[in-house]
Structures are given as C-alpha cells and as structure tokens.
Amino acid sequence: MKWAEGGVTALVLAGRRGGDAGADPMAAAAGVSHKALLPVAGVPMLLRVISALRGSPAVGCIVVSIEAPEESLFGLDGLEGVLLRAAAPSPARSAAAALEEFGAPLLVTTADHALLTPAMVAHLLSAVPPGVAAAAALARRETVLAAYPEARRTWLRFRDGAFSGCNLFLLAEAEGAARAAAFWRRAEAERKRPLAMARLLGLLTLLRFALGRLTLRAGLDALERRCGARLHAVEMPFAEAAVDVDKPADLALAEAALHRREAW
Predict the structure, then answer these.
(1) How many other C-beta atoms are found inside a 10 Å radius of the C-beta of residue 174?
(2) Cβ distance 81 to 170 under 8 Å?
(3) What tens digit of pLDDT does each residue of 49-93 get?
(4) How far apart are CA 176 and CA 227, in angstroms?
C-alpha cells in the first residue's frame, strides 16, 4: 500500500500499565518512573523505538502517549517531529484518541519494542493490501525460536501455525479503523470476564480455537464479522519483531540481540 505525502503518523504507547506508578516491577527495579524509560544496553527503550521510527522513510509525525507529558519531556526535548500526548487509562483508549486527533493511517507500537527497526516498519506497511482497515504484525513460532530458542513468548495457536504478536499495528482506513478500535476497547474492557469475552468474540470461534481447528484467516474473518471492519495479519520474517521487554529474561534477550546486531 502506498502512503500519501507527509507519511504515516506513528503512535508509541508509553504509559504505565493501568496508570499506576508502582504497577511495573521492571520500572521499579531500574528506578525509573515508567517502564518505557528502562535502559536497554544503556539507552532508554522509548528512545530506541523513536529512533527506529525516525529512521523509517514512510513515517512522518511521531506521537508518544505517556502520563503527565506537561511535567517532563522524558528526554524527548529537541527531537523534531515528536509530539507528546497524555496517555488514556488503557492502550486501546490511547490509540482511539490518537486516531481521532491525527486520523488514519496510524501506525501503533509500544515503548517496550526495544528491537524495532525501520525494516520491520517498512515490511508491515508494504504488506497491507488496499481496503484493509486494520492490520497486526505476527511472527511465526518457527521464525522466533530459530533465532532465539530460549525465548518465552505467548503463542496464538492456529491450525496453520503458532504465532506471537509483535506489538506493531496499522490502523489504515479511517472509518473501518475507528470500528476496529472501538471493538478493541470493548475487548480490553471485558478481558477479565470470560463469559463476556466469549459473547464478544463468539463462543463457536473460541471453541474452534481452543480445539486447534481454527485457521488464522478464519479467526480474522470471525473478528471482521464482529467489528465490521476488514482485518489483515502480516507475517513478519524478523524474529526480533516478537521480542518486547516485559520480564528480566526479555531484557537479557533484547540486550544480547542488540550486542549481536552491533557486532555485525
């Protein structure tokens, strides 16, 4: 898909989980206010994500969603093209607010995506077909484990393969993206209520998924019917795309990957 002059707006979700300063043990252990500011190989991972986005030719404006942006620039002063916005109470709400303010296309990623590269961004943007409202990047289990056999990820197990989410999304078309974002907000609100989630996603779909009978495309088709927007999954050929820094083991893996990258 080709993008208009001015580029795609990129949103980096950098808020605290639930807005609670004490909610993330990684941030507390590092003595930083936000997990987004956790140093990875000596550089706050938020700055690593911004650097990757700034190196992506298709990306124009970069928006960082974080609590109380008026109180501190979080090390972002002097970075041209970077805007700060107050984080909403949840990632889905922050994405919806950015979509309303900046419109589509909106590239969404997270501040803990410390291994993000311009090549990953370019692959996602080039692989989204015309007419798609929202797309998500996924990495196949074999791709991730071939490079990092020690990686511990959450796998989405479909009949045609197991995949890990890559914390990289594209809200591509305004009207459909708004419907997809609204569905995301509903799913986020119901995530701790299994019966409500079953009603939202469809009991038959969940049963087929649990039994290993659901293909990835069939799962997307079911979600399309629920949210009223055309959806797409982009398979990423990069193992590092599936690595986010949630646990000490993730931090060690990310730093090892960066050292390997620098050695090349």
Answers:
(1) 14
(2) no
(3) 999 999 999 999 999 998 876 555 566 666 777 899 999 988 999
(4) 9
More confident residue, 5 or 256: 256
Residue 101, amino acid: E
Query: Taking residues 140-160, what's their average pLDDT?
Result: 92
CATH number of 8-141+155-178+229-248: 3.90.550.10
Assigned token pair, 3: 């993008």
207 CA to centre of own chain: 26
Q: Between residues 33 and 58, which one has the greater pLDDT?
A: 58
Distances (CA, A) of 109 to 83, 121, 206: 15, 10, 26
Residue 21 has pLDDT above 70, yes or no: no
Rounded Cα distance between 168 and 135, Å, is: 9
Q: b/e for 212-223, b at 16 or more Cβ within 10 A?
A: eebebebbbebb
Count of other CB atoms within 10 angstroms of residue 54: 15
CA dihedral over 15, 21, 26, 31, signed as positive or negative:
positive
Full-prediction pTM beyond 0.70? yes
Contact of 56 with 121, CB cutoff 8 Å? yes
Question: Which amino acid, 97?
Answer: A
